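Known limitations

Files may contain more than one protein. Parsers should not assume a single record per file. Below, a two-record file is shown to illustrate correct handling: read the sequence, read the token line, then continue until end of file.
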Amino acid sequence: MEKQFFTGVGHVEDMIFLDKTSDGSFTSGKEGVKAIFTPYDRKVEFIAFDDKTLCNVKSAMGYPAIYNVPVSSYEGPAKAILMDLDGTSVHSESFWMWIIEQTIAKLKKEPKFQLECEDEPHVSGHSVSEHLQYCIDKYCPDKKITDARKLYFETTEYEMKEILEGRGKPGAFSPAPGLKEFLTEVKGNGIKIGLVTSGLYNKAIPEIISAFHTLNMGDPFDFYDAIITAGQSLQKGQAGTIGELAPKPHPWLYSETARVGLGIEEKDKASVLGFEDSSAGVISIRLSGFQAIGLHGGNIHASGLDSLCLKKYDNLCDALPLILGR
């Protein structure tokens, strides 16, 4: 299909064009709607008008939201960068998909249960509850999300303790190639760095601590200018936070890291880049009003979202000339 240009989104090529949104709220060619299109993973829907584009972020938990897609640009050198954790800074997606698999195996009482290859886009890049709900709908519709969450956090707590004590699943967390050199160069040039993850605190923080320990980089809380996670999990005896229903591809994690964590004002948005390997993350960055840099190896290409990335790279260090304005 010939490339088409839409406000806020830019040139679109690898998308599925629809007659209506999934909820029937918008129809292509009616009431000013120019086109409706969705990535291959169908997690969001774009509704394009002549002067704007809306993004309908769907929800497996029943709480969708519609956002305006801001027009974004980039002018180097950067004043700040926003870094995703899983798959971008640390390679751990296979581990967390394994945790989901273990959870469903326990829920079904089938120790040999395995996810299918086609499940991957639905069990990575979104919230824990959405991952689990997808699996329940497909594999055990008679089970409850509350029971799945309980098993998930019990499994996670055990495995994280094993890893931090030097045991656990081998190769669970490994720093992305060139991470130390990349972060050191960026920080050495006075550029602020924010770490952003849809992962809950109890799973995300051991990841980055483990990676920094491997790289002999000290305490990540001292290194990063801001770290924003999806918050605390809701478990008996402790308060949870709002991260389960507002993760990527919603804009809030990146927006909070930039505006609150790094103090980025509206006038400086064109001096900020977000780094992601997932389709949900790319959309989150764009809905926050920043340009996105894609990392090969995730599901950006498979989801049809290459066109939403300013650039795509194999290695973080390949992006340094763009960041530094050289």
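...continuing to the second record:
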Amino acid sequence: MSATRYAYLGPEGTFTEVALRTLPEAATRELVPMVSVPAALDAVRSGAAAAALVPIENSVEGGINATLDELTSGEPLMIYREVLLSISFALLVRPGTELSDIKSVTAHPAAQPQVRNWMAAHLPDAVWESAASNADGARLVQEGRYDAAFAGEFAAATYGLVPLVTEIHDAENAQTRFILVGRPARPAAPTGADKTSVVIWMGEDRPGALLELLQEFAVRGVNLMLIQSRPTGAGIGNYCFAVDAEGHIADRRVGEALMGLKRICPKVRFLGSYPRAGVEPEDVGPLRPGTSDTEFTEASDWLARNLDGRG
């Protein structure tokens, strides 16, 4: 395995590359652009890269399905950390292009919901075509295949383009969440401001089945930050659920919730416990009474004393 190589969704000039370069260790790694999210994650699985940074969620459209599906299937991988990046697009064109010249635009599919209203107002007749990434869209404009691309302004110089319009976004303060993914290993120690990600396969499809899964978290005071269904591929109506929960697998409330899920679900895939981006321990609200590690330990000790006849 190449311990000094990090893969990312490329080509050069993507928001993913910008997010990756915010990590301190990126300065000492070889950063390798890949053509797709599956290719980046497969580089980790094969040992060609020690880790990969890929997008998993944006604040406008929600989860990135390609990433969720790759983490759900295939050889298991593990999330080690997350990065939040504020997103604003520029309309990149070849020099000399005017707004009235633009008949076709391209970008990653996740960009479209974030610029849809702007495009309807300023380019109502332009045809949208999806690209493998925003930077790849810029490359296609450079080659003359499209008139314009929505991408980061920073990508303009790389592809010999100019930003015709900047600061394009339908939603203020839009963000994309990226995850650094590696091969499974022991999770880092809890920080007090952590997140745990799992994928859960539901067993028998019957009334209340999903509620039973959620109650494993609720009765232990574990707050859920994301729950998203994805088809399993086994037929219409067969779904698994990607879940992000507050806390660390080493926290008793989280660990016992996962054990509860393991007892009642045909399959549970642990994706990692890792620090929450932009959140410090002092920012985390108080736990619900009865759900701290101390209270779990006291309850366990009480049970042991009674089993021993010590009252």
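Parsers that stop after the first record will miss the second one. For reference, the second record is described as follows. The chain is about 25% helix and 30% strand.
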